[in-house]
Specification:
The chain has 487 residues and is α+β, with helices and mostly antiparallel strands. It folds into 4 domains: 116 residues, Uridine Diphospho-n-acetylenolpyruvylglucosamine Reductase, domain 2 (2-Layer Sandwich), CATH 3.30.43; 121 residues, 2-Layer Sandwich (Uridine Diphospho-n-acetylenolpyruvylglucosamine Reductase, domain 3), CATH 3.30.465.10; 92 residues, Alpha-Beta Plaits (2-Layer Sandwich), CATH 3.30.70.3450; 97 residues, GMP Synthetase, Chain A, domain 3 (2-Layer Sandwich), CATH 3.30.300. It contains 17 helices and 20 strands. It binds flavin-adenine dinucleotide. Flavin-adenine dinucleotide binds next to strand 5, helix 6 and strand 12.
Length: 487
């Protein structure tokens, strides 16, 4: 069946006889029930949430197809899978839940998908040191639920919480909706265990803030499967908060909202949720607020005394920018609907191309980057909407999240490439970074050289040293040319 499916970006395939021989040998090592070449398994791991995959899927095509799927249950099994693939020069792609937004799991050269879902246990909950050691295939919502049952939170709530894994978070430098208080995933991870392409396993210890040379485990944060497989991680956890305070405000201008946020961050307030919407998104998400002003929603949580103090600091900063207090109800509405993405599927079926583009800026270029990207996107023929909000903030700047919807008619892929080219050009011209949390995957690799300069060569040298045969997730992170997906 998969032979008849068009694999648009497939660059090459390993000889079937090689795959069969590998399947036989790896089955003998890890068990036949953990190895499959069934069509359904091949199809269900061949793609992620990259909008281009969805466009092709509606036309009955896929970006590329793997040749084998394996489900290791232990680190030792991951090591055996990789050592054999390294010896045979067979590509290997780590697979979490396929919620990546940029084609990060697309098996351009075929090979083996390592589906991590059976590595799903919490290995240790350390109450005294507030740490959890978890296997990387654990689903995000199940991770949080298990922590909650013991009185803790992991503090990490990406919109994809229910369809992503802990390993995927680490591999993509993910950000959750509560990141202003709890941090991004790179702030939460204390230590990790990973397996290199040749099967070598290494693990660093979870002792805080070591000065024992560069942390090689931290090199794997953001590595998107190109350096090896992250098998377990030790992460920070927090006691469930004693108090939660919800507040919302509107501002006449976006610049006022940005300045109020900058000032309360400067004063040391760290609300868990800080989201500032432009007027268009305010109208879409909170229709009762209209579409003329810009909404800011805030959620502050923690020990009661700290929450009360933060609330006072924030109220002073927003008043200084003439904010209108619009109460807690809008935040309650947001909390109830924050994981709902059904509108995107409906638009896709109606022929729209829809994507979200997240970048990160300092304060001095936060507004100008928003304006430049929005203008650039509106200039692309077919664009119906280009709106934005800031969803993660720091003392030094903020992440900007742009939503773009277009109805380009038949040539959806050309339109898709055009909007990205326009958005990335505008972003780089403003001095912003090309991604805050979705990562690079396949598609965004084209702008990695502009983003990093010589730094990309350094990353390439590290990759070559750790994976000399280039078997780990070929063509991703801008390392290596992707012939069939050019600018
Ligand atoms: C609707 C929607 C909302 C989203 N919201 C957010 C959000 O709020 N915040 C956010 O940060 N992201 C968000 N994302 C993006 C995506 O969910 C994240 O990138 C997520 O971290 C990917 O996790 P995953 O387990 O699904 O990984 P996958 O998509 O399976 O893999 C992503 C990449 O990581 C690699 N990888 C996966 N597991 C491992 C491992 N154990 N070791 C080494 N490499 C590995 C893969 O090879 C691939 O390159 C969203 C995506 C969608 C579709």
């Amino acid at each position: 069946m998969t032979d008849q499916i068009r694999a648009v970006l497939q660059e090459s395939r390993v000889e079937q006889v090689e795959i069969d021989r590998y399947a036989e040998e790896v089955s003998a090592l890890i068990g036949t029930e953990k190895v499959s070449n069934n069509h359904i398994d091949i199809l269900s791991t061949c793609r992620d949430y990259w909008p281009v995959s969805s466009i092709w899927m509606l036309e009955g095509a896929v970006p590329a197809l793997p040749q084998l799927v394996v489900w290791p249950q232990t680190t030792e099994e991951v090591s055996q899978i990789l050592a054999l693939a390294h010896e045979r020069r067979i590509p290997v792609i780590p697979y979490g839940e396929g919620s990546g937004a940029l084609g990060g799991v697309v098996p351009l050269k075929g090979g083996i998908m390592i589906d991590m879902k059976r590595m799903n246990r919490i290995r240790e909950l350390d109450h005294e040191n507030l740490l959890v050691t978890v296997e990387c295939g654990l689903n995000g919502a199940l991770y949080e639920e298990q922590l909650n049952r013991s009185g803790y939170t992991g503090g990490h709530f990406p919109q994809s919480l229910r369809c992503s894994t802990v390993g995927g978070w680490l591999a993509c430098r993910a950000a959750g909706q509560f990141s202003t208080r709890y941090g991004k995933i790179e702030d939460m991870v204390v230590a990790a265990e990973a397996v290199l392409a040749d099967g070598t396993v290494f693990r660093e210890r979870s002792v805080p803030r070591t000065a024992t040379g560069p942390r090689v485990d931290h090199l794997f944060i953001g590595s998107e499967g190109v350096l090896g497989v992250i098998t377990t991680a030790t992460l920070r956890i927090w006691p469930l908060p004693e108090k939660r305070h919800l507040a919302s405000y509107t501002f006449e201008k976006l610049e006022d909202g940005l300045e109020a946020i900058r000032m309360f961050m400067r004063a040391g307030a760290r609300p868990a949720v800080v989201r500032l919407y432009d007027a268009q998104e305010t109208g879409n998400h909170f229709p009762e607020l209209g579409d003329k002003r810009c909404a800011l929603i805030l959620l502050i949580e923690g020990a009661a005394a700290i929450v009360n103090g933060e609330k006072d600091v924030i109220e002073e900063c927003v008043s200084a920018r003439n904010a209108e207090d619009t109460g807690p109800e809008h935040v309650k509405h947001w909390l109830e609907t924050r994981f709902n993405i059904s509108a995107a599927s409906r638009l896709l079926q109606k022929g729209a191309v829809l994507d979200t583009i997240e970048v990160t800026t300092n304060w001095h270029n936060a507004y100008s980057t928003y304006s430049a990207m929005q203008e650039a996107l509106k200039d692309v023929e077919g664009t119906m909407l280009a709106s934005g909000h800031w969803s993660h903030v720091y003392p030094e700047g903020a992440a900007l999240y742009i939503t773009v919807v277009g109805f380009p008619g038949d040539d959806k892929i050309v339109y898709y490439k055009n909007i990205w080219q326009s958005a990335m050009t505008a972003c780089l011209a403003e001095g912003a970074a090309i991604s805050h949390h979705h990562g690079i995957g396949l598609h965004r690799g084209q702008w990695m050289a502009e983003e990093h300069g010589k730094g990309l060569d350094v990353l390439g040298r590290i990759k070559n040293a750790l994976d000399p045969h280039g078997i780990m997730n070929p063509g991703k992170l801008g390392l290596g040319e992707v012939r069939k997906w050019q600018k």
